[in-house]
Amino acid sequence: MIGEVSLGGVYVPTILLLAIAALVLTGVVTRLLSAFGAYRFVAYRPLVDLALFFLLLGLLSLLTGPSL
After folding, report:
1. pTM for the complete prediction?
2. Domain ranges of the chain
3. Inter-axis angle of helices 45-63 and 14-36, to 10 degrees?
4. Phi and psi torsions of 52, nearest 5°
5. Each residue of 43-62: pLDDT tens digit?
6. Could you say which DSSP state residue 64 is in?
7. DSSP string for residues in 3-51
């Protein structure tokens, strides 16, 4: 993962772009989990959604990182 991306001459941190992508993916996964009724097995839904966001952000960060 590089540090910054130039969008129209404005340097944007890569982690910000990854966070936006993770937020969109979290919304999609949340709707899927809700449609399948998986939220009835959890005690506190907002905490699960927050954990899901951070898991997806970490996964995106690992996938866009430098190759070994």
Report:
1. 0.85
2. 4-64
3. 130
4. -65, -40
5. 999 999 999 999 999 999 99
6. T
7. SEEEETTEEEEHHHHHHHHHHHHHHHHHHHHHHHTGGGG-S-HHHHHHH
